[in-house]
Amino acid sequence: MEFLNDMALFVEVVKARGFRGAAEALGMPNSTLSRRISALEKSIGLRLLHRTTRKVELTEAGQIYFDRCKRIVDEARLAHEQLGEILTQPGGVLRASFPVDFAVTYLAPVMAGFASHYPGIQFDFDFTPRRVDLVSEPFDVAIRMGESENSHLITRHLASLPTCLYASSGYLERAGEPREPADLAQHECLRTAKAETWNLHNGTQTATVMANGRFVLNSVGMIRRLATLDMGIILTPEPIVADDLANGRLRRLLPKWQGAPVPVYAITETRLLPAKTRCFIEFLRKFFADPVCGNC
User: Fold this and answer.
1) Rounded to two decimals, what is the model's pTM?
2) CA triplet 163, 129, 24: central angle to 5 degrees?
3) DSSP codes of every residue in 17-80
4) Which position among 11, 115, 187, 279 has the lowest Cβ density within 10 Å, counted as fewest Cβ atoms?
5) Is the pLDDT at 99 greater than 60, yes or no?
6) Where in the chain is the domain with CATH 3.40.190.10?
7) In degrees rounded to 5, what are phi and psi of residue 267?
8) CATH code reported for the domain at 89-159+263-294
9) Cα-Cα-Cα-Cα dihedral of 279, 280, 283, 284, to 10°?
């Protein structure tokens, strides 16, 4: 059954996109790893990898083999981890990716609460704006806002966050307060590049307004910060501005009107999740259901 071990080695080479990185991760000589993969290809009778001096790429047969092998390796890893759960709490390193502004302003308490509940887990969190590749990068889970873009990944719905209009008292004193959605066309609207128009709802009523303004940004955190500095009106999920509302830096406008709810998902590459990842997703789900008790 030596080929089963070689299958696991093959999966590591593909995930590392090369022999050198895989050999370092596995703690074995590069030459040994290359020889084992060559022997695997010989036993199968098909070339699995195109090798160049800089990287390796999957052949057509290699892609098919990788898809199957990865599931088998994940199943074996999960079997070991589930048996370990009988004796101890979940452990290991949890690698997760988050939308930076949402995580810093809203999710920090749940991270602290989870860490207190599971002292055996270590954390490697990514807060960069990019969308990590859950297939080729070693992340256990990614938390995302908005609709999922990759149908090949597994999405678990955690919450739908209502979006509302907010501005500072200083801005409203200078520019006046809108009384209906159409008034927003005369105001400074702080927005992202994808939100040229704002769609608002009041029961069965709908209104679409142009989000005019001098600022177009790709950072929700910066949009929020500029709003507290009297620079304009924002349309954002309430949790993003919860602290600013509590401290009086912002207040809600047009309270009968809301934007479309923003879904929050936990996204994984597979349904076969180790205990640390399953516990984290469940902890997040409880937090969104009841933020007061979710991180108790």
Assistant:
1) 0.67
2) 140
3) TSHHHHHHHHTS-HHHHHHHHHHHHHHHTS--EEE-SS-EEE-HHHHHHHHHHHHHHHHHHHHH
4) 115
5) yes
6) 89-159+263-294
7) -115, 130
8) 3.40.190.10
9) -150
